[in-house]
Inverse folding.
């Protein structure tokens, strides 16, 4: 995604607080226009536990003329059932507000 001032990239990262049980979290990074300098980089812990994966990102210029980012993916420990679709929302600085995590699935 291009904001006019850089790129926003999403994926996921394994974090290994416990080497025997690594956990996967969505990862979002914003770079400058060259792609060489990271402006910010965050991982997000969806729902506080389990594995979650980011598979895409959408950039939106809201009515206040501020960029927002929505990442889509799936969570293995969703609110509704086993594996749920998830959406996470963050502002142009990569900070999540409230509410910022949404899940969709079947029980």
């Amino acid at each position: 995604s291009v904001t006019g001032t850089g790129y926003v990239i999403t994926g996921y990262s394994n974090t290994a607080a416990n080497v025997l049980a690594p956990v996967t979290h969505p990862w979002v990074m914003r770079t400058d226009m060259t792609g060489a300098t990271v402006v910010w980089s965050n991982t997000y812990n969806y729902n506080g536990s389990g594995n979650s994966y980011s598979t895409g990102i959408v950039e939106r210029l809201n009515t206040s003329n501020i960029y927002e980012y929505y990442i889509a993916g799936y969570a293995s420990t969703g609110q509704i059932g086993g594996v749920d679709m998830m959406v996470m929302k963050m502002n142009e600085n990569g900070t999540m507000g409230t509410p910022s995590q949404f899940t969709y699935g079947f029980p």
